Amino acid sequence: MLIILRPDTNVQSQEYQHTLSQLKAIPDVSVRIHTVEGTQQTLTEIYLLGETKKLNKDEIAALPAVERVIRISEEYRILGRHKDENRQNGFVYNGVNFDQSNIHVFAGLCAVDNPKNVETMMRHLQEHGQVCTRMGAYKPRTSPYAFQGHGKECLPYVFDLAGKYGIKVVAMEITHESHIDEIRECLEKTGNPTGVMLQIGTRNTQNFELLKSIGRQQEFPILLKRGFGITLNESLNAAEYLASEGNSKVIFCLRGMKTEAGNPHRNMVDFAHVPVVKRLTRMPVCIDPSHSVGSRESDNDGILDIANVSAQGIIAGANMVLVDFHPDPAHALVDGPQALLLNELPYFLDDIRLCHETWLKRKSLYRKAL
Ligand code: PEP
Ligand code: MN
Fold this sequence. Notes:
Blueprint: E1 2-5, H1 14-24, E2 29-37, E3 42-50, H2 57-61, E4 66-70, E5 91-93, E6 96-98, E7 104-109, H3 115-127, E8 132-135, H4 155-164, E9 169-173, H5 178-189, E10 195-200, H6 208-216, E11 222-225, H7 232-244, E12 250-254, H8 274-280, E13 285-287, H9 289-293, H10 305-315, E14 320-324, H11 345-367
Parallel strand pairs: 7-8, 7-14, 8-9, 9-10, 10-11, 11-12, 12-13, 13-14
Antiparallel strand pairs: 1-3, 1-4, 2-3, 5-6
Bound molecules: phosphoenolpyruvate (PEP) and manganese (II) ion.
Phosphoenolpyruvate binds near residues 110, 136, 173, 202 and 288.
């Protein structure tokens, strides 16, 4: 059962304390409290887990501070929609609003290699009005002999440079819970010049212990990649692991599925699921065209496959694009063949703008038919 408190309820207030003590007194039920920061207001949601069937919904709705009560029987208890369109979707992090209506581009290096390339990348992003990027420090690799990322050694210059060029959010994959502390400590040491969105890679989508430890911290939002060989339902349940531990600031990322049927693309592009994830859950949805396509092939008109599949996802309502760029792809340490070139950045951004505007127009078109 989900209890939504009145917006901006003060947790010190008598109403709140009274409501909470009443709920905690219910036998065989555990109470979990979630705070959701939105652009306009802070929402507190309380989840009652356990034997909730026999509870009287009206009695709970009558407690002070309670705005409404929703019975949840379906999956994805926290992140799901549950036929309540009024529930907030998305979150604000470090001044950037992520929700199911807007769009952000996280263009950047698949793997951090050296300060020069990080700086060149970030300078270009700033020149083109971008406040987000991707920077891989911890790289999960197929071969143990392949470059594994510079790890915590590169964090100081990545964060310093992000601050220098006005980057507010850096998406960064972590593969072990100790990386959260490394990132937190380095941000503190460098004076918090930027923010970090913790990325969980496709190989770790069902690493439940990792999910639990990332879900237990509420400081950093999370970008969860869809597992490349499991069902959508299984990946959405992985997202729910994060939320059930306390962090519902989760963005779900489609990145293609591993199957020979995807050839000649690296993975089978699955961006038709963008609106499906938005229908089933309140998570903003990201697409990763780079790891989906995996190469710089282009069509007969010179449009890269990466740009074409991005267009497909955005025109269907995607809210974030995670995309590999590199100042010198031939010398990139990871995934150079799929990196876009810096001179392609403004065109790619214009294309994204066009597609997002088209999605908005498509929405109003079909609204007329309702
Ligand atoms: C990445 O984004 O760098 C990455 C390794 O992606 P994935 O986990 O989707 O393979
Ligand atoms: Mn990669």
